Amino acid sequence: METTATTAMTLVAAVDNDTMALLALQGILPQLLPGARWLWGVGSASEAVDRALDPETRPRLLLVDMSLDDGTGIGVVRRIRERTDRVAMLAVTAFDVSTYAARAAQAGAQGIVSKANMSSLATALRTVATGGTYCPQELGAPEDSRDETVDPVMFIDAASARLRLLRARGERIENGMKAGSPMRRSRLSPKESETMRLLSRGLSYEQIAARGNVSTATVRTYAHRSVTKLGASSLAHAIALYLEG
């Protein structure tokens, strides 16, 4: 019942250079996300950014096509996320989701889904609209996975994603949180804390291992220990808690 109440207030917008795709999405939205209201649909990356940042035209949920004529969907997500965390963003693509998933997550999206899979699109819309994150099943991996060649894509909430982007740029955070806050981070060892810091900046296990001259398995161990020590439900949740301090 809480989901229905939240969904009823969701203003949805989309950017896609395919006019027919926008019309189709607008028409099917009531079935995909019951109670949601279509706000606007545009084909221009720059117009989408302007509208998303304007309080008068800002949607609660923005669908971003990854392939645009005048810019990239990744660029749209990043430009919006660096300015606000009040817009949840769901990346959509006609290509294999693995093509854009990692970059969409790093840019600040809350999920990615294929345009062709209506069932998954409905699930993704409902999940992201109610404050969650969505990762297609084929991209996820159990946290105890021993396959060191594949890193799971991790989407995090809008506020944590914006904080990660700003910190990566070295900007000061003006929301009262201190970068060096010891409350949660004091539970982590120096190596665990460094692992979480690098993961929050979008580095993969392999990249972190190369930096520290350790094995990927060791990095995974630090990450999994951090999840436990921070009392998180997942690695993505642990990263969000770490960013909060």
Order of helices and strands: HEHEHEHEHEHHHHHH
Indicate the proportion of strand residues.
5-15%
Strand elements, count: 5
The major sheet is characterized as: 5 strands, parallel
- The helix fraction, in percent, is 40-55%
CATH third-level topology of the largest domain: Rossmann fold
**Helix/strand/pairing category:** alpha/beta
Query: Order of strands across the biggest sheet?
Result: 2-1-3-4-5
Annotation field: number of helices: 11
Contiguous low-pLDDT stretches (5 residues minimum) are 1-8, 141-150, 174-182
CATH superfamily of the largest domain: Response regulator
N- to C-terminal distance:
32 Å
Using the CA coordinates, give the radius of gyration: 18 Å
Protein name: Two component transcriptional regulator, LuxR family
Domain HTH luxR-type: 181-245
Modified residues (4-aspartylphosphate): 65
Pfam families: GerE, Response_reg
